[in-house]
Design goal:
- The chain is of the alpha+beta class.
- The protein is built from seven helices and eight strands; from the N terminus they run E-H-E-E-H-E-H-H-E-H-E-E-H-E-H.
- It has two domains: 77 residues, Alpha-Beta Plaits; 86 residues, 2-Layer Sandwich (Alpha-Beta Plaits).
- Strands 2-3-1-4 form a four-stranded antiparallel sheet, sandwiched between helices. The protein has a four-stranded antiparallel sheet with strand order 6-7-5-8.
- Strand 2 and strand 3 form a beta hairpin.
Length: 183
Amino acid sequence: MKYISILRGINVSGQKKIKMNDLKSLYETLGFQNVVTYIQSGNVIFDTLFKSKTNLKARIENAIEEKYKFHVPVEIRTNQEIANIIKNCPYGCIDLAEDGTKILVTFLSSIPLKEKIEDVLKYVVAPEKLVIRGKDVYLYCPNGYGKSKLSNTFLEHKLGIKATTRNWKSVHKLYQLSMEKEQ
């Protein structure tokens, strides 16, 4: 089975440093095959016969903590789930060159409670947009994600759920890489 793991908060402002070559080696020691990393923020595509994403997440988080002595939350999606995220984008057809960093996906560790979603939506101010579909949050930040109140930390706090965010260009690249490595 093909999976994409998305690590939260590594290699940001000199914190929780993990070299991608080391991360790739760590995944290989866990028995994963065809391991490919993408950029320094902690995106790893891999194959494994394991079917339980919960167990995979725990194995990866435990291995990172054991090796590096710090905890890193990990989100796991299949390449089919990433394909569905792209297909179901509520913002229509997106020009990657023009808007690839203005559209983002926040990957949640679980489905948020309805009342928490309603609370978060109160903070969305036009021209920004936010749509939550299951365990995925679609953000549109036309003035830049760095200027938005709808940060990963804000969403985690308001929804009470661990999360990690990637821009639309990265989401597309992860899907592309996962398809290139299909066997």
